[in-house]
């Protein structure tokens, strides 16, 4: 005989869901709807006068060359940060998963950088790579490298890529390590007995079994690059030099908060939201097919 549990309190599930639903509505759907409505209007910087203009903000936006340049910068930035952060975190997780003396201490130290705020992380990297004051920056110049992220756009973009990737490595490391520890050791030992080398064991057993974790982190890292790297860019370069590090999220702030174009900034935020949703949907539609659960 099968026993079924029956919950007589039909209101309890809704009460348990209510806090999360309220938070989602207040902090996501309501601001998103306000941004969509604002994108159809022209509003002065003080919010005194507004005018409904339809899709004029979007037409103006897609007619700007600087917007496409920000798109290209965001594409390069997102690919570089995602690849670096996920690759190095996986390497560190594989090394930390080994039975070594003081392994728990190493794991704790590798997780700590995630607690650093993005703006603080940006300031730390700026101090290290500042050409006249930073220890690493001065070392590069002494070695004959013409390093100057204050004036060279490529150097500035490289610096914010490294800082953003470093900030995310700890988060990825935590999930990769948990995924590695959930893999049955008997499978790896059986492959080793059969004569499989470490590299072959990794690519044929370990990495395929990490595919759910890798897919999850891929989605999270894309969202992180598009939104959560604003503080790093603002602290290091302020979008410069010559807008070389102005990503889409920083351009929303620059045009809206600094430039006073609230309608155009809202249109940019709507486009950015659509891009991220589309990228996430594409990943779930095509990338998830290769995930082995």
Low-confidence segments, given as residue ranges, are none
CATH architecture of the domain at 66-260: Orthogonal Bundle
Please state the overall shape, judged from the principal axes of the Cα atoms.
Answer: globular
Q: SSE string, helix = H, strand = E? A: HEEHHHHHHHHHHHH
Mean pLDDT: 87
Q: What is the subunit organization of this protein?
A: single chain
Q: What is the tally of helical segments? A: 13
Please identify which CATH superfamily of the domain at 66-260 we are dealing with: MetI-like
Backbone structural class = mainly alpha
* Name of the CATH class of the domain at 66-260: Mainly Alpha
Largest sheet: 2 strands, antiparallel
Could you tell me the CATH topology label of the domain at 66-260: MetI-like fold
What separation lies between the terminal Cα atoms?
32 Å
Strand content range: under 5%
Biggest sheet strand line-up = 1-2
